[in-house]
């Protein structure tokens, strides 16, 4: 794994507001296992090996970054891998599912009625595949958080006032919160459409890792319609930041992160003199689900 690059974003708005943004390019650390997924998997893989498991069983959708990372990380660790996909097997597999099969991941499609919820399906799978170590959806677990906490080792973290990341399950956010210094605030831009309240499952998962309530803040108003939804405005924004800064983003997570943070700058959320680190958590492979020509940089 190569060292991640930190790139500076220079921009008129940032200049005017006296806010500095640097980007931790986890999208560049590995050609396949890019982004945050490797970090979230690290201790799960170690645990599976220690428990002498044959492989790892996990969950994902047709364009899942998590499945791609799991499939290749398992292949490299000499572990088998099995991906559980909700829904019937489609006539043609997505690029992502074809790719994970190339890395020897076995796919199991479970019909939606049978897969009513994780709580119902997990014990069934555990009984059926006792020699597989089960990694929850998105790597969301304490081990996933501990792995994500190591993301900060790739940058000079002390120098930033804010660390900003895209948020799905909140595992990466919790890890960054866990690793944050008292003077820092971690900002999560939620890519799912969920109600903004203290007691939602995302906040309940992240909260125990914070040493003070203000150590982190989740923003819920940059989801663009919900998980994996997008609008023309988001796509235009992604094309423009690529053109301006040569920063490729994905439409599920990092595009919304950059958009949200720039809006917060505009709204004066950050005091003048703030220094932000944005974690580019990868996920570019998911852009393959977009029609050709949508993004200028695909
Ligand atoms: C999975 C993923 C996230 C979300 O991470 P969580 O730990 O689930 O919150 C963010 N960005 C990218 C690119 C991802 O693939």
From TrEMBL:
The keyword Nucleus does not apply. Pfam families: PALP (PF00291). Residues 24-282 form the Tryptophan synthase beta chain-like PALP domain. SUPFAM superfamilies: Tryptophan synthase beta subunit-like PLP-dependent enzymes (SSF53686). Keywords: Pyridoxal phosphate. This is Tryptophan synthase beta chain-like PALP domain-containing protein. Belongs to the ACC deaminase/D-cysteine desulfhydrase family. InterPro entries: ACCD_DCysDesulf, TrpB-like_PALP, TrpB-like_PALP_sf. It comes from the Bacteria. Its cofactor is pyridoxal 5'-phosphate.
């Amino acid at each position: 794994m190569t060292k991640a690059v930190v790139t500076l974003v220079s921009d008129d708005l940032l200049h005017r507001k006296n806010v500095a943004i640097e980007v931790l390019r986890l999208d560049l650390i590995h050609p396949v296992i890019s982004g945050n997924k490797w970090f979230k998997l690290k201790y799960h893989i170690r645990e599976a090996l220690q428990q002498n498991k044959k492989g790892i069983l996990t969950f994902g959708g047709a364009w899942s970054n998590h499945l791609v990372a799991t499939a290749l990380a398992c292949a490299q660790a000499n572990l088998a891998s099995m991906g559980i996909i909700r829904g019937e097997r489609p006539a043609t597999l997505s690029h992502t599912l074809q790719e994970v099969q190339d890395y020897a991941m076995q796919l199991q499609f479970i019909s939606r009625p049978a897969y009513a919820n994780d709580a119902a399906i997990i014990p069934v799978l555990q009984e059926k595949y006792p020699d597989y170590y089960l990694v929850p959806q998105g790597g969301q677990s304490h081990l996933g958080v501990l792995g994500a906490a190591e993301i900060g080792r790739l940058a000079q973290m002390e120098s930033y006032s804010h660390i900003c990341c895209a948020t799905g399950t909140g595992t990466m956010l919790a890890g960054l919160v866990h690793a944050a210094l008292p003077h820092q605030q971690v900002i999560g831009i939620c890519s799912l459409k969920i109600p903004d309240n203290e007691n939602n499952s995302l906040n309940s998962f992240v909260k125990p890792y914070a040493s003070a309530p203000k150590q982190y803040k989740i923003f819920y108003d940059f989801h663009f319609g919900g998980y994996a939804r997008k609008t023309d405005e988001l796509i235009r924004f992604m094309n423009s930041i690529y053109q301006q800064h040569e920063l490729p983003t994905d439409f599920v997570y990092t595009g919304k992160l950059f958009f949200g943070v720039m809006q917060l700058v505009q709204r004066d959320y950050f005091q003048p003199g703030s220094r932000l680190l944005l974690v580019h958590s990868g996920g570019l492979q998911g852009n393959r689900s977009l029609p050709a020509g949508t993004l200028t940089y695909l």
